[in-house]
Specification:
2 domains; 21 strands
């Protein structure tokens, strides 16, 4: 195997695949694949970070200067819908909390540390964070103090140490994460104490959404199903917004949410962020990606605007018809006839409709990563990295799935991918795509890649009981340990065997039989 950098591997892959796809041009799925093939590839381009930061600063300035243009009836009906939804959820938690939009006791039950980095804290695991001071902004400090005083473990340890266990910081820290070949995404690293309460507020709002029939934990398949119907009937529009999470202004939230929630979210948010060059930027938006309540709050805002639009045309009171509507963050689906009206309302609220990814007419729709043409799924194969065997196995399985779905043959592409492997491993279809090549006629005894758990021993047992109850720690021999998350997973080789009584390695719940058979045909012909 020739040693190549990830960028060289990716470039070689795209050159071969795109050339091989040319003979199938004219098929909607192939044309979509050619157009979007490189969109999520993680080529290292340092200049993209500077562009993303400049774009964030520019958008923050736009949000700060934007004046809401929403009509009074839209604001009134959207606000009434959000108030009803909040109270409806709260009373389901406490039947005595009538017309109470925010229940602090419930927030104290929902708090949790975030899974990623926190500003001012070392480590990403809950075990690492719980034993360090919580970081938060000055405005958030009283809420974090109250949270710790309501928790017997924090209360006991703070009393034992003779201090509050809180460190005040100015705000968040802005960084970037890979998005695609042409851009990176900005994300804020929030203070740990602020994030605990942000996540609690986010879980609260998720509960609010479930009470009105929108479960965002299960929403992506529903969005895809409606997108498919829209591509078939032309009666549903799919809408995508640019920079949606960074475009929710403070005045918009003040207009739509009850005062209790507006004040609470303002206390939890970071009023400023530290840029990568050390400068401090005052934030005009209510929150950024990285804030624990951004996504469900954004979903509720868009749902309320859809409701308010329908009230204008005599729609049902305090009700959303989810058979023709879907909202998942800024992935929105409504009847095509409502698209012009909703677009104007979204723009009046300060949002930017992404014309390149919004569709209200024609045979194509896309939502939540699903692309559909006249009811047929034509979602492209997105390749991020080919750095390791596990990455290559994922891409081989994606390409085989694409070939099986479209009944085409990309032998040169697959030959190239197999040449990147240290060892080609063929595994039954019930394995994960990063563990080997999924097929129905591999060897009965086989080897596969398995993610290797990274373990650390728990050294500070001050919070042992809550950590054990929460499932964060476990025993290994005489030690109490926890598994840390590796940014680059490590793998070990394990042995497996197809169970007795199984004729093949086919998993009927993971792939349709005709696709499995076409994939096996391709592998047999190579």
């Amino acid at each position: 195997m020739i040693d190549r950098t990830d960028a060289q591997k990716l470039s070689g892959f795209f050159n071969i695949m795109l050339a091989e796809l040319e003979k199938y041009r004219g098929d909607p799925a192939v044309d979509r694949q050619i157009a979007r093939a490189r969109k999520k590839a993680r080529f290292t381009k340092p200049e993209l970070q500077l562009e993303a930061i400049d774009k964030f600063i520019s958008n923050n300035d736009r949000v700060g200067k934007f004046e809401l243009r929403l009509d009074d009836d839209i604001v009134e009906n959207a606000r009434a819908f959000i108030f009803y939804a909040l109270c409806n959820y709260t009373i389901s938690v406490d039947e005595e909390a009538i017309q109470t939009p925010l229940l602090w006791e419930h927030i104290c039950d929902l708090w949790a540390f975030g899974p990623g980095s926190s500003f001012g804290v070392v480590g990403t695991h809950t075990v690492d964070k719980i034993s360090q001071d919580m970081t938060c902004t000055a405005r958030c400090e009283p809420w974090v103090v109250s949270l710790r005083r309501n928790n017997p473990y924090f209360q006991c340890n703070d009393a034992r140490k003779g201090r509050t266990g809180i460190t005040v910081v100015p705000g968040s820290k802005l960084t970037t994460v890979p998005k695609n070949e042409d851009a990176v995404r900005t994300i804020a690293i929030e203070p740990s104490g602020s994030m605990c309460l942000q996540k609690a507020a986010g879980f609260y709002l998720e509960g609010v959404l479930r009470r009105i029939g929108l479960d965002i934990r299960k929403q992506q398949p529903k969005n895809k199903a409606l997108a498919r119907i829209g591509s078939l009937t032309d009666q549903l529009a799919t809408i995508d917004l640019s920079l949606a999470s960074d475009s929710i202004s403070l005045p918009l939230v003040r207009c739509l949410f009850p005062p209790e929630w507006y004040s609470f979210m303002c206390a939890l948010r970071s009023p400023k962020t530290q840029l990568p060059d050390g400068r401090s930027l005052d934030l005009s938006m209510i929150s950024t990606m990285g804030n624990g309540f951004t996504f469900p709050m954004m979903t509720l805002v868009f749902t309320s605007l859809i409701y308010a639009m329908r009230c204008r045309f005599g729609g049902p009171s305090l009700f959303i018809d989810w058979s023709q509507t879907a909202v998942y963050g800024d992935d929105i689906i409504v009847p095509s006839t409502e698209y012009p009206s909703l677009r104007l309302i979204l723009e009046d609220a300060g949002f930017i409709v992404n014309d390149d990814k919004s569709y209200s007419t024609g045979p194509f729709r896309e939502s939540c990563g699903g692309d559909f043409y006249l009811g047929r799924e034509i979602t492209p194969v997105y390749v991020k990295s080919l750095a390791r065997d596990s990455n290559v196995f994922v891409v081989i399985n994606q390409v085989l799935e694409f070939c099986g779905r479209e009944k085409i043959y990309l032998f040169a592409t697959l030959d190239y991918l197999f040449s990147l492997l240290n060892v080609a491993r063929f595994v039954p279809e019930w394995h994960n795509p990063d563990q080997g090549v999924l097929c129905i006629s591999g060897p009965r005894k086989y080897t596969y890649l398995s993610p290797k758990l990274m373990r650390k021993r728990l050294r500070d047992e001050s919070y042992l009981v809550p950590l054990a109850i929460g499932g964060y720690v476990y025993t290994s021999g005489s030690d109490i340990v926890y598994s840390t998350r590796a940014w680059t997973p490590r793998y070990e080789v394990r042995r497996g065997r197809i169970p007795k009584g199984y004729a093949t390695g086919q998993a009927f719940d993971k792939r349709p039989a005709h696709i499995s058979q076409h994939i096996q045909l391709i592998l047999d012909m190579m």
